[in-house]
Amino acid sequence: MSTNHRLNPNQTITLSEFPTTAHQFHDDRESAEVEFRALRDELIEYQRRLYADGTRKLLVVLQAMDAGGKDGTIRRVFKGVNPQGVQVTSFKVPTRHELARDFLWRIHKAVPAKGMIGVFNRSHYEDVLVVRVHDIVPEEIWRPRYAHINAFEKTLAESGTTILKFYLHISSDEQKQRFQARLDEPDKNWKFSLDDLEKRKLWDDYAAAIEEMISKTTTPWAPWYVVPADQKWYRNLAVGRVLVDTLKTLDPQYPKPEQDFSGVIIE
Ligand code: ATP
Ligand code: MG
After folding, report:
1. How far is 194 from 198, CA to CA, in rounded Å?
2. Cα gap 65→226, rounded to integer Å
């Protein structure tokens, strides 16, 4: 595993071998927050360029166990970025209309257009996670989806989309504490549901499904990053770093004017 938490293709992973804490990566919250804020300023500038450049697209996929911090990551990392250039889509339980189509139909409609950053809060990966763990469809339906997903993401990549997939990795203890806070704090009650506790009982089944998902869908064109997410300050920093490094490589530019503006006088 590299220091930016990016995985290599063709690696069979075991989730428990991946740290959930910042510990071995960073020990100072204050300096992490300073670095994060500077990165966010860079992200704001890069987004402006990406939008102005209008040729490339960036897709950020967020997956996590419940209370893993997907919402908080979006709120913190994209704070201050021009809302016009970022499209966040949260994928909930599919509607009747969505279920009447193939599983990628609703996903494909939400992919970022040229110049845009698309953020998926949950994604097509639910169709090999919750769907598998809760036996919503039989294995002969969900198993071929790894190949479908890889082909779909390749189509996006070859159409100018850079894909970054983050698995926000929290411990079972951390989930327990976050659920407890959702129960205890009235302002957080709305985030809690008894279903969450049913899913928590299936932690090991989810972990197994996540392991296979990451192992089978880490590709050169759409890598997974397994980010230690027990400490929100480190999670934000790690995600922010990957976004900025990626945009730096894309190097979007403000377009040069197509007409000659020299000598133009505005009356
Ligand atoms: P939080 O993590 O903050 O609670 P959330 O993403 O869980 O937010 P909810 O409205 O609580 O939002 O839950 C959305 C639910 O939709 C999740 O339980 C998720 O597993 C489920 N879901 C998403 N996609 C699918 C799918 N393709 N098939 C079945 N269930 C899905
Ligand atoms: Mg939920």
Report:
1. 7
2. 12
Fold classified for 29-250: Rossmann fold (3.40.50)
Beta bridge partners of 44: none
Contact 254, 53 (CB under 8 A): yes
Q: Is 264 in the pocket of ligand 1 (CB under 6 A)?
A: no
Q: Is the CB of 25 under 6 A from ligand 1?
A: no
Tell me, using a 6 A CB cutoff, whether residue 174 lines ligand 1.
no
pTM over 0.85: yes
State the closest ligand 1 atom to the C-alpha of 90, by its place in the atom list counted from 1.
6
The tens digit of pLDDT for each residue in 16-67 reads: 999 999 999 998 999 999 999 999 999 999 999 999 999 999 999 999 999 9
162 strand-pairing partners: 58
The CA distance from 129 to 206, in Å, is: 7
Domain boundaries, the chain: 29-250
Pocket flag, ligand 1, residue 126 (CB < 6 Å): yes
Residue with CA at minimum distance from ligand 1 atom 15: 92
Q: How far is it, in rounded angstroms, from Cα 9 to Cα 51?
A: 30
| Ligand 1 in reach of 188 Cβ (< 6 A) | no
Residue 231 amino acid letter: Q
Among 105, 126, 197, 210, the mutation site with the greatest number of ligand 1 atoms within 8 A of its Cβ is 126
Q: How far apart are CA 227 and CA 33, in angstroms?
A: 17
Most distant CA atoms of the chain, gap in Å: 71
Give me 52's structure tokens: 């102005």
